[in-house]
Specification:
Strand order of the largest sheet: 1-2-6-5-4-3-7-8-9
Structural class: alpha/beta
Shape: elongated
Oligomer: single chain
Radius of gyration: 23 Å
Length: 397
């Protein structure tokens, strides 16, 4: 029985009781029952309990000889795991359910939450982009997230490397107004390097997932996560995206959901900008600063009168500023071949065809200049980067 065996149906009014909540969870965790099927069954049968009773007969009609709904013990174990993880379950008929998700025909019926669930009532803007983000892309994501959070918006993204992590971090620094939609359980942090960031979000923002606690994400779960990111948001801003990327899929899905799509233009020779430039050709709103997003959407209802936000030419968030001068230190110890290769990868990821100041690159890497300089020289001699006048660096194309 495929997820699209049934067509979309309406929602059940009123918050579910504890017993109904258990039935909701059993229904969505039953084999071959996806979100669209869930809502169809609920609309046809009037309750999750009645839908569970009807499932075996529906499965037989679809050619499945033996079919049993998800056992009650399985979902009780999920609820116990959620409590152990400090998470809370909400259902699509709960009063605090995000209003924006009610519009989606394939909205998740349940969400696990860790953190400040009051953020679900805040207006949201999604910031998405490349995992191997350039230094300029990371700085732009931080600038946008900082400005939008200061203007009263909650910045939603997917806790991925690169643009997602930069957006979450800057929003936390501004007001703690960020929500991370996860492809696995709310207690399974992916990628592991974002564990500290996830802990900060759980403490001051919100982690959420439609997957059970303890569930490790798989490739097929990321498109599902992306529809929730765009579904929660009034608009999706794409900072960097390749021509075929998850960020571009999120943007296409946002258009299907009736959301506004905005994009930051990029250098024509940088593959990470190809998706954004394509979106702009197709009519997406061009973004140069937070003001462009606010002009397209208007200020968030939670914004304070006169709240400060970065405008064009203003200073960037704290992490983008030069560090205070420090006393000279001893040369760094020699690096292993593996460490050298990783540093080369980090440098190449952050550079693009558009020139970038060497001192800005060093600040973005958060490494001593003495450690970065030999790697830059090696990459220059290898013909992979060009050093230009004024202390600028760029990828050789």
């Amino acid at each position: 029985m495929a997820d699209d065996l049934f067509t979309t149906a309406g929602r059940v009014p009123g918050a579910p009781s504890a017993g109904e909540r258990l039935a909701w969870l059993r229904l969505i965790r039953s084999r071959r029952v996806g979100p669209a099927t869930f809502w169809r069954l609920l609309g046809e049968h009037g309750s999750a309990d009645a839908a569970l009773d009807a499932l075996p007969a529906i499965a037989r009609a679809a050619g499945m000889a033996e079919y049993s709904p998800c056992p009650e013990g399985v979902v009780r174990a999920e609820l116990a795991a959620g409590r152990a993880a400090g998470a809370r379950l909400i259902c699509g008929a709960d009063p605090e359910w995000p209003a924006a998700l009610r519009e989606l025909p394939d909205a998740p019926p349940v969400l696990w939450l860790r953190g400040d669930d009051a953020l679900l009532a805040r207006p949201m803007v999604a910031l998405v982009g490349a995992r191997n983000a350039s230094s300029l892309g990371v700085r732009m994501a931080r600038r946008l997230a900082w400005g939008l959070a200061e203007a009263g918006w909650c910045v939603v993204s997917g806790l991925a490397r690169g643009i997602d992590a930069a957006a979450h971090g800057a929003a936390l620094e501004a007001r703690g107004a960020t929500a991370a939609v996860m492809a696995g359980g709310v207690d399974v942090i992916y990628p592991p390097e974002n564990a500290a960031l996830a802990a900060d979000i759980a403490a001051r923002g919100l982690l959420l997932s439609e997957m059970p606690p303890g569930y490790a994400p798989q490739a097929r779960h990321f498109p599902q996560r992306n529809r929730v990111i765009s579904g929660l948001a009034r608009a999706v801003v794409v900072v960097e995206a390749a021509a075929r990327s998850g960020s571009l899929i999120t943007a296409r899905g946002a258009l299907d959901q009736g959301r506004e799509v905005l994009a930051v233009p990029g250098h024509p020779l940088d593959a990470r900008a190809a998706g954004c430039n394509q979106l702009l050709r197709e009519g997406a709103t061009l973004v140069r600063s937070p003001d462009d997003v606010l002009e397209a959407l208007g200020p968030g209802p939670g914004a304070e009168a006169g709240a400060a936000r970065p405008a064009a030419g203003m200073a960037e968030p704290a992490a983008g500023r030069p560090p205070a001068a420090a006393a000279p230190s001893a040369p760094p110890p020699p690096r292993s071949l593996r460490e050298v290769a990783e540093l080369h990868r980090l440098i190449l990821d952050r550079l693009g065809p558009a020139p970038l100041a060497e001192d800005q690159l060093i600040r973005d890497l958060s490494l001593p200049a003495a450690a970065v300089a030999p790697a830059l020289l090696a990459l220059e001699l290898d013909g992979r980067i060009d050093r230009q006048a004024g202390g600028l660096l760029a990828l050789r194309v």
